[in-house]
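Minutes, structural biology subgroup

Action item carried over from last meeting: produce the structure token record for NADH-FMN oxidoreductase RutF, flavin reductase (DIM6/NTAB) family (Orenia metallireducens). EB confirmed the sequence was re-checked against the source entry. Recorded below for completeness.
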Amino acid sequence: MKKIAYDDYIQKATRALSKGAFLTVKSNDKVNTMTIGWGSIGYCWGKPVFMVMVRDSRYTYELIEKSDEFTVSIPLKGQLKEALKFCGTKSGRDYDKFSESSLSIQAGQDVNTPIIKGCDLHYECKIKFKQVMNPNNLDQKYNKDWYPQKDYHTLYFGEIVGTYLEE
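Output recorded by EB:
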């Protein structure tokens, strides 16, 4: 693994995120990953931050609420499409996503949560702030288009404590 600055690959990361990345969370001995297509890399409170969104209906939500960290593993070259599809459509409550989609995990370098091997870019994050979306503050068109079931996200702002490339 090669350590890099959080913003060295920010444009590539943002483009690849829309095609899917793995959000991985660990709580006690339970580990789960899910596919995300939304997120944000930025700078807040004097620190680099990765913001991820998780709906409370997701198994990942149960784990992230009991954790203080997460990792995001991004395949930049379009690999792992089938695993991304599986992890985005199946619940960790019902499936062992790692064995079902042949994903391997590797210990994080700066956090206790693992990363997904085979991805090019990894972010390790410590949660510093979370906020449940308030639908009254959401553009009504977005509310109608993205939340017809009123299943709003919780936003988790994680300080990026490690960023690296797989070599």
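Discussion: The mean pLDDT is 95.
Next step: EB to file the record with the rest of the batch.
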